[in-house]
Structure formats: C-alpha cells, structure tokens
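Thread: Modeling a multi-component assembly for a lab meeting

Hi all, long-time lurker, first post. My supervisor asked me to bring a structural picture of a complex we are working on to next week's group meeting, and I have zero experience with this. I have the sequence lines for every component (984 residues in total). Could someone generate the structure of the whole assembly? Inputs are pasted exactly as I received them:
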Amino acid sequence: MKLFFVACILALSLGSAFLHLTLPGKQSELPVMWWITADDHYKQEIVTVFREWLRDEGLPDVDLRIDNSNQDATKKLVQGVSGVGADLMDLYNFQQDLFPATGMLLDVTEEGKRLGFSPDDTYPALRDDITQNGRQYSFPRNTGSALYWVNVGTFRRLGLTPPPFRWNPDEFEALGKQFVAAANPPGTRQRAYFVNVVSLDVMRRGLGLANFNETGTTCTLDDPRNAAVMERVRKWTVEDRLLPTREQDAAMAADISGSGSTFSHFDSGRFGLIYTGHWAFIMLRPRGTFELAAAEGPQDGFPNTEMGGGSVGVYAGTKYREHAVRFLQFLGSGHFNRLIVRQADSLAPVPRYAQTDEFLRPVGRENEWPVHQAFGRATAETGITVSKSPFVLQSVVYRLEMEIYESLLAGRLTPAEAARQMGERINAEIQQAVRRDPGLRALYEERVVRQSHIEAKRAAGERVPAAWVTDAFHRTYYRVQGWLEPEAQP
Amino acid sequence: MNNRRSELRRTLTGVGFLLPNILGFLAFTLVPLAMSFFIAFTDWDILRHNIFRRESLSFVGFENFTWLFTHPEFWHYMGNTFFLMLGLPFAIAGSLGAALLLTRVSRHPAALRGALVLATLVLIASGLVLLAGGMAEMGVWFIFGLLAAGMLVGGVLTGGTIYRTLFYLPHFTAGVATFVLWKKLYNPQTGPINFALTPVLEQFAAAVQVAAPVFAVGVPLTAGVLALLLAGWQVRRLVRQWDDAAAGSVAVALGAALLALPAGFLLHWLGMARPLATAGVIVVATALTIFIVRRPRPWGPVCARDAGVSAEIAIGLGLVPLLLLLAAGVALGAGLPAAAAGGIQPPNWLGDYAWAKPAIMIMALWAAIGSNNMILYLAGLSNIPPELYEAADMDGASSMQRFWHITWPQLAPVTFFIFVMGVIYGLQGGFEMARIMTLGGPAGSTTTLSYFIYIEGFETGRLGYASAAAWVLFALVFILSLLNFRFGNRNAND
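Re: Modeling a multi-component assembly
Sure thing. I ran the full set together rather than chain by chain. Output:
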C-alpha cells in the first residue's frame, strides 16, 4: 500500500511537471500574451494583422493567443481580482465600469496620449465607456449605435411599407399591428413578431429622461415619463404582442440550433425588425444578400440612439505591459481600423474611417449602403452611451430594472409602482455604497453640492458649465437645448 | 523503545495517508468556512478589497444582516426557496413509488411480461403514427418513445435490473444537460409538452363552452364538496388523535393551522383583503384547537404536548397542496367558461410568473424520483423482514393494509433520512436551474437564496453581504434540521 501511495505521488508529480513544461509559454520563444475574446476567424485575422503591424512598426513580435473559455464576466472578474487574469480582455456593457473600479485594469492614460489611443482619438460619446474618474482604462475595439435592421423583403412580401428612419411610438405601434396581423395567419399560434426588443432607454431619453440625474447622484426613474414608457412597451408586449417577452425570445432562440437565432428569424421573416449594432453584418453576410434598411428606435421629442460596443483593457497584473499597451495602440492604427471596415464588425474606433467610401459604399455590396450610411449618421449625430452612476454598478441597475419591469409585465405592479420601485431600490443601493466607501462618500458629497448648483442655475434660467454635467445623456441633452455655457477656447 | 518507535512510525504513516485529504479539507472547506464567517461581519467588497486595491477592511457588526433582513428581495427569494421545497413530499412519494414498482417487477417478472410487451408495442406504434403524421420535427417525441420502448423491452428481458439502472439515469446525467433538455421540453411554441397539451386543452375548452353552466357551477361545487370532505376527515382525525393521546396540544394546533391556511387563501382569492383573510385563518385555527383540546380524554392526559407534531407536518405537506388546488377550483371555477371562450392556451412554462416555479418543481420531481432516494428505498424495502408480510397474509391483510401497517412504518428511518437531506438540499438548491433555465426570472420568481448569494458574491462583488446571506441560509438549514431531529419519526417501531 505504501509503495502504491508513493507511486501515485510520483505519477502525479511527473504529470504536473509534464503539464508545466508543455504550457504554451514554455513552448514559445516569444512572449505569450492571452486575449479574452471570441475565438472566430475575425479575431484570428486581428491577431495576424496585429503581428504584421508590429513588424511594420519595427516593434518586437509577441505570440498573442485567444482565450475563448473565460469570456464569462464573472470568470473575468474573479480571475482578475485573484491575480490570474488574461493580459488583454474584451470589455462590454457593465464590465466597463466594474473592472476599472476594482483596479484590475491598467491605467493607460499617459500611454494613450503618447501613443495615439487617447479618448480624443475616438468618438467623444465613448469617453464615459473608456474612462473612469478622468483616467483611461481601455480603448474601443468596435463601436456604433444600435438601430433597427429592416428586412425590406419581408415587408414587401407582406404588402407593407417599411418604416422610415425616424418615427414616433404611434407610427411604430400602427405599423407593428399591421405587421403582426399580416405575418400571422388568423387562427394560428403567433410565430412572427414585429421586433425582437424595444429599448426603454431610447424612449425615456426621447422624453428627456435618463436613468440618473446630471451628476449621477440620484436615480431619476421614479418619474411619470418612465411609467408612461413602461406602460406603453408593456402594452406592445402583452396586449398587441408586437415583441416577445425575454422568455418567449429565448424560446424562439431554442427553435434554432447553434448561435445567431435572431438572425435566422430575421432572415425567415419571424422578426420584421431586429434591434442591434452594425456588427450584425458579420452574421447576415453569410446568409446571402438582403435588401436592407435601418431605423431608429421609436421616440417622442429628443432624437437619440444607444451607443456602445466593446473595448479592450490591459490587465494590471500582466507580465507584458509594454506589449499589451501596444495592442491598444494597434486598435487606433490604420491597419486595425481598415480591417474592421473590411470585416464590417461594427464601426471602427477612429471616427474618420466611418466616413470613407470603403465603409459607406463597399464595392459589390450595394444592398448594404443604406445601412452603413444610417449607422454612420446615427453614431456621429445621435449616439449616446448608457447613463452611469459612479455610486452604483451598472450590473445592479440592470438587474433591478429588469426584475421590476418583468413584475410589471406579469401584472404584479402598476406602471407607477414599478417606476417608484426602480427609483427607490436603485437609490437605496447608491446610499448603501456611499455609506460604506469613504472615497465614494467624498465624491458623492461634492457632486450633491454641484447638483444643487445645477438645479439652482436651471431654475434661474441660467446656463451651466459643461464640466458640471457628468451624465452622458444630460451632457448631450443640455448641449442640444443650449443650456451649457460656451466652453472656453484654449 | 522499539515498540514506541514502531508505533510512531505507524502513526506517521497513517497521517501521511490521510494528509492529502486533511489538507484538502482544510484548504477547501474549513478555512473558507471560517473566513466566510469572518467576512459576513465586514464590508468586504471585491471592488475595494482585492490584490490591486488594498483598502482596509472594516468591521461592520450585524450591518450586513440588517441590510439583508430589510431588503424585500431577500424575503422574496427566501419565499421562492420555500415554495420550491413544497415539491419535497411529492418527490419522496415518487421515489417510494418507483422503488415499490421496481421491487414488484423484480419479484413478479412473469406476471408483468404480457402487459409490458403490450405497452411497448403501443408506444412504438404511437411513435410511428407521429412520424407518419408529419411530426418528424418533433424528434424529441420520437427519442422519448424509443427510450420508453427500450426501457420496457429491457425490463421484460432482464426482469427489472435494467429498470433500476434506467430509473437512476436522472441522477448520473449531467445537470446542465438535463436542464437544457427540460428547457426544450418546456418551449411554449415548439416543445413537446405544449404540443401534447394543445389539442387536449382545445377539446376541453370546446367542452366547457358547450356545457358552460355545468362547468361554471359543477367545478366550484365539486371542488367545494371535496374540500369539505377532506377538511372533515382531517378534523375527525385530529379529534381521534387527541382522544387517543397520540397528539398533544401543539400537534392539534399545528394541524388546525395547516387546515385553516387554504381557507385563508380562498378568502383572499375571493377578494378579501389579506389582513382580514389572515385574521380569519387565525380565528378558525384557534377555534378548532380550543374545540378539540377542551375535550376530556377518556384515558386522561398521557402524552406530551408536542407528541404527534411530525405526523401533522407530514400530513400537512400532502393535505395543504391538495386543499389549495381545491380552493383554486372553488375560486376560479365560475370563471372557467369565460376563460375558455377564447380557447385555453397551454402555459408559457418558464416565461410566466405564475408557472415558472411549478415548472421547475415538476422537473425537480422527475429528477428526484430517479435519484439516490429511490436507491435508499430499494435498500430499505429489501431489509423488511419477510415474516412480517407472511404474518399479514395469514391475517388476510389487503395490499393497502400491508403497505400502511408494515412497509411504511418499516421504512420510517429511510424516510426520515431522505426528508432531512431533502430539506437541506432544497434550501441550498436551485442555483443551477436558475442559472441555466431562467436566470432567476421572470421577475425574480425562480431566484433562490443560493442563486442570490452567487449574484451578490460574484456578479456584484459584495462578499460581506453574500457571506451574511450564506450564513442565514446555514442557520435556516440548521434550525430545520434540528426541528426534524426533534419531531421527526425515525424509528421503525414508533
């Protein structure tokens, strides 16, 4: 037994040693860097072009490898704060404020300025996504506003006129009802929906309402405008059935094997419109040539589109800081931006590449031209990133908002109650965070004072210094309404 | 000296063998456990306390617990956890039923062979009819048909051995795979469950419309009469238990409260305000208790006040859901014709707030029937002395009498163990199902405490808060286990 025991230990030790010696880092003569992203041929092409760019720039080569298995946000977070994060990681949505807050991303402010990938080198609207408290932590890899994609062929087949680029909720509802009636034969179970999703944010912003106030100190969703928007979308979902619930959408996704079910349903006419970013081209192009158009989300009053996308951050614990930072520099280069334009994986991070003929009018893809132009226009003119508060995580806001909105859909809350609960619960989270974190408390107190100054100035009909307004929506809204003081010219 | 050296060597060898396990236990169980207790009283937040941001931890006393208990969502998720546990008695009954069936098959294979062959042929023919009818896309149907047929054929040929293995299938099939499969089964549009339910519900709706008055009056009337009969049976049973000194005053009060509970729900569903309905429950339960415990016992007070509590809990677990169903029949029956006017749609299982929890309970029931519980019952059944059955046969006992007076009491230790473990797993469970099938929705209806702990700890990063929730969960498990051990019937001869 003792011998057997010793033999087991030896075998395990040898196995461990073998595993260690066969690790990629031990095999490669170059520094091996890991990038957490999807492992598809688009990303592999990016890796290839990155190494070409390094060569062209006369920079030392690296072995950049894709880590496909740790894309889950929780995995990234737990690995990152435990000291074993990947060198580079894609950041989406709430990761863009959560990860920098933990300190696990490298502050690249100085390198960004020096190497040409600072916030000034991309869309101004993206500043909030890639910076936190004035410091830069990432650079966009792909971006753009989300719009409705219109399958013109589906509308034509049903004898309907496709929607205009800009429309209000009444027009949306009228066309949606026509579509659902035409696409679902009488007496059959509903299989086709007008749209896959409606953005509550776009509709609220159309009415001049954001999730937070100008300084992010208070959630402002306890507002009749929010209640009205939620009630309208509830009616579209439950009564008019213009769009599926989240679960119905998931059930539709289960009808199709593999990924990209939304695009299959768009292709087959089960969705008249799908709401997503410009990146959808990489899913639609392989499906053939569509006659396409694009439309904004329905809104009253203030035209706006939801802007976002993915960015890449450098892990603070990386062993290859210089190489990793070079990757962000590469994202701002012509090599990368032209590649993104060619791949049509969203808009390139540097705005001027969305104004080129190569982007707007790709040869041999005339059916795509209206969509490229619509996305270029929306991103540049009406794109606004999500409203964030430094005092509450976006993931918490999203979870609470979804849970309460679903309670409304389930008939457990009235629209007014839902709006009130959203405000109360998100504000309770803010208060809890401020009470616990002394650093945050100081910032909060400073901003509360600033908020009162903003309100006093607005009440007096005076303009407000642009630097006071930190919320992405309010900054744009104030600028368009002419409520901002003219910025001092350097 | 040699002896001492030899003893020391043997001890060291023993410790050497145990060391890997001890180290593993220390590293992955004991130390994290102690740390989580410590963390529960701090403001540990991944955002501020990690290897990159080393802000000092603050001791916050019971603040995490206060925050937890004043949060409506915590109570909501705790309610979900307990609601899902209502399926436990049915799961126990299911696994016992499966074990009894398997024992029967293995004891009398010849008697069942003809029936099994016939059932196999019917299943295969059903599959062929479905295929011929253009149902090829319903591959799941076909797969299930073939699986069932295979089980039956296997059962005939092997006399039950293959059954035991196949019934155990849910236990050793990867959880994720079964959850994905059930998600497909529950698909409201293309899932086989709704595919099968649709024509049944259509026929039912047509029947309701044709005979609307019969259903409008008949359903609530029948449900009401059945509920009254059931309630009457329980009252009579409580009186007898009291008279026989088999139940003390605590047990009677509990039995009365459990009986009055569905009445409270009925009053609320009929439009009475919740406080009034609650008051009604309290009044009825109190009156019934007083009525019973004031009865003089023919043989004097010979039992403890808490005697019979376990029996009342066990009966209540079966009785309350049944009475609730009947109460729903009373409350909703009258509106049935109106509801059927537009046709009755099958449920949106995982997407509807009211159906999501029952859908998960049904899946859990399926998994529980073919689980370790069934194996434990099989082992328990094989340990019952055959002479007890022989004696019962000689006395002319029926099958039901054999079960109630021999099998069920003899299985008491097994049932007790299964119940205790079921309560523990039930309180800790629900994470995988929520994560894979519903993401805790819709509207948080399937978020259990364990999923909530995961969200708070690893998505939001509030480790202190998540640890506090975990320790509250531990306290719940501990208290309920204590109650089980205090009141549970774990001896075959009790």
